[in-house]
Amino acid sequence: MSLNHLAIIMDGNRRWAKNKGLPIKLGHKAGAKAFENAIENCANLGIKILTVYAFSTENWKRSEEEVNTLMDLLKDYLGKMQEKLKDKDVKVNVLGDISAFSPDLIESINRLQDMTRDRSGFTVNICLNYGSRDEIVHAVKKIIDSGISSEEVNEELISNSLYTKGMPDPDLLIRTSGEVRLSNYLLWQLAYTEFLFIDKNWPDFDKSDIEYAIEIYNKRNRKYGGC
Fold this sequence. Notes:
- This protein is an alpha/beta fold.
- It has a single domain, classed as Undecaprenyl pyrophosphate synthetase (3-Layer(aba) Sandwich), CATH 3.40.1180.10.
- The chain has helices spanning 13-19, 24-44, 64-84, 103-116, 132-145, 155-159, 207-219; strands at residues 5-9, 49-56, 90-95, 122-130, 172-175, 194-197.
- Helix 1 packs across helix 2 (24-44).
- The radius of gyration is 18 Å and the shape is globular.
């Protein structure tokens, strides 16, 4: 049983910084570095798709200072990704409603996606201004606007109306920081996904944790509702 699609809730950046007596900004910077390492480690360990929860629709409720810091870090990180992925077979998708972002950030997002669009090696999905309920509402509106009758609505149609259209559902979900909840993340896609909750803040997440997750996953017996 291969672990092909790994989803991660990258939780604990602020807690990591507070535990070390550091500004929250440095926690987010350390989290960005951990994400960069996770991309490389997942690709090297044979995982095909990595989907991460980077900024949720609820994260706008944080202080204006922290949101502005996150937006600045995100723009800077996307620029660095363009350079680092220039010669690598890595495709980047951004999942979520990016219309809420500033024009320059939207431009950075589109530039990175366009640059990597035709690559077929490793895929990274970054969920930005993403919330699963919002995604499902968006999908329902899309279906209604297309004029499809209720008799034609089925699971396949809904799946193909989500941001993850054409992608397999995650095999395994990891959430760091010790929290045990989904926080409005991929609720449709995680219906039969295996879960693993790790009591470690995201900036401390490393290759050994991915290797551990693969080991745990390989011991699971996925029944998909069967006996």
